[in-house]
C-alpha cells in the first residue's frame, strides 16, 4: 500500500466542495468514475444486482450511481453515505429532479462508521471513490457489517497496478489526487478475506489508460473555456492541471495505476 500521511478527510471535502470537484464532473460527467454508464452496468451485472434489492453506496458523492441502479436495474431502494455536505445537498436536488427522491436517501457520515443497522442490505456499492478513504480496514469491515449473509460487496476503485509506483511517483500522484493511500487488488482481497468474505471477481478493467486521453482531449480541445471558467480563468493553474493529468496518463499506460473491479460475497 502506498500512503500519503499528510492527506486526510478534510482535504477530500475541500476538493469536492470547490472548483476541483466541478472540474472533474465537467470532464467525466455526473458519474464521476472511469467508464461511466458502461462501467456501472458491468459492475452491476458481475455482482448480480437484482431487481427489488436494497443497497448502500459508500462514498456516494451526488448519488449518480444510486440513480443509475434504481432506474436501470430496478433496485428498490438505495442509501448513500458521504461526508461532504455540498455533494449530499446536490445529490438530493438531483434525485428530486429525476423523480427518484422516494427511492434514494442520503446520510452525512463517515463511511467507516455509518451508524446504520447491521445486516439488512443486499449489497454494498462503490465506484472509484474508496481511494479517498483513509482507513481501508475500517471501511471494509463496515461494508461487511452492513450486508446480509451472502450479500454482495461490489466496487471499482483506482488502485496500484502490477508495475507498482515508485516512491516519488506515488507521492506526486497521491498528492495531486488527494488520496490518503492506494491499495492493490491483492490488498483489497486480503481485507475482504480477513472479514469472512469470498472474492468472486477481481480484475483490472483495462479502462484507465484508454480513458485518460479522452479527458485530456475534452479539456484541451473542447471544454477549455468551461474548465478555465471553473478555476477563475487561471491559465497557469490550467497548465499545471493538464501536466498532472498527462503524468497520470503515463502511469496508467505503464500499468502502475489501474481501475480495479471487485465483487465479494459476505460469508458471515
Brief descriptors of the model:
268 residues; alpha/beta; Rossmann fold; seven-stranded mixed sheet; two-stranded antiparallel sheet
Concise account of the structure shown:
With 268 residues, the chain is an alpha/beta fold. It is built from 11 helices and 9 strands. The strands form 2 sheets. Strands 4-3-2-5-6-9-8 form a 7-stranded mixed β-sheet, sandwiched between helices. A two-stranded antiparallel ribbon has the order 1-7.
Strand content: 15-25%
User: Pairing-aware structural class of the strands and helices?
Assistant: alpha/beta
- Numbering strands along the chain, what is their spatial order in the largest sheet? 4-3-2-5-6-9-8
Biggest beta-sheet profile: 7 strands, mixed
CATH architecture name? 3-Layer(aba) Sandwich
- List unreliable stretches of 5+ residues: none
| Radius of gyration over all CA atoms, rounded | 18 Å
How would you name the CATH homologous superfamily?
Vaccinia Virus protein VP39
pLDDT average, as an integer? 96
* Element pattern in H and E: EHHHEHEHEEHEHEHEHHHE
Envelope shape = globular
Distance between the termini: 27 Å
CATH uppermost class: Alpha Beta
CATH topology name, in short, is Rossmann fold
Using DSSP, what is the number of strands?
9
Helical run tally: 11
> Please, how many domains?
1
Q: Which bin fits the share of residues in helices?
A: 40-55%
Amino acid at each position: 500500500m502506498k500512503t500519503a500521511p499528510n492527506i486526510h478527510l478534510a482535504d477530500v471535502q475541500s476538493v469536492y466542495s470547490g472548483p476541483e470537484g466541478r472540474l472533474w464532473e465537467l470532464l467525466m460527467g455526473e458519474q464521476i468514475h472511469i467508464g461511466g454508464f458502461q462501467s456501472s452496468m458491468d459492475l452491476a451485472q458481475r455482482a448480480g444486482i437484482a431487481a427489488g434489492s436494497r443497497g448502500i453506496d459508500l462514498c456516494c458523492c451526488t448519488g449518480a450511481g444510486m440513480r443509475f441502479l434504481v432506474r436501470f436495474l430496478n433496485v428498490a431502494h438505495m442509501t448513500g453515505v458521504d461526508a461532504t455536505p455540498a455533494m449530499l445537498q446536490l445529490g438530493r436536488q438531483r434525485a428530486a429532479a429525476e423523480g427518484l427522491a422516494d427511492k434514494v436517501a442520503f446520510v452525512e457520515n463517515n463511511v467507516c462508521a455509518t451508524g446504520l443497522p447491521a445486516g439488512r442490505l443486499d449489497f454494498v456499492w462503490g465506484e472509484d471513490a474508496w481511494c479517498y478513504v483513509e482507513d481501508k480496514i475500517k471501511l471494509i469491515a463496515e461494508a461487511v457489517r452492513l450486508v446480509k449473509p451472502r450479500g454482495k460487496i461490489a466496487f471499482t476503485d483506482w488502485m496500484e497496478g502490477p508495475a507498482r509506483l515508485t516512491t516519488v511517483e506515488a507521492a506526486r500522484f497521491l498528492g495531486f489526487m488527494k488520496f490518503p493511500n492506494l491499495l492493490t487488488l491483492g490488498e483489497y482481497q486480503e481485507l475482504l478475506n480477513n472479514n469472512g468474505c469470498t472474492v468472486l471477481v477481481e480484475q483490472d478493467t483495462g479502462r484507465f489508460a484508454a480513458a485518460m486521453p479522452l479527458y485530456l482531449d475534452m479539456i484541451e480541445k473542447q471544454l477549455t473555456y468551461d474548465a478555465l471558467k471553473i478555476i477563475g480563468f487561471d491559465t497557469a493553474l490550467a497548465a499545471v492541471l493538464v501536466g498532472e493529468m498527462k503524468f497520470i496518463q503515463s502511469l496508467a499506460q505503464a500499468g502502475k495505476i489501474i481501475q480495479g473491479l471487485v465483487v465479494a460475497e459476505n460469508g458471515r
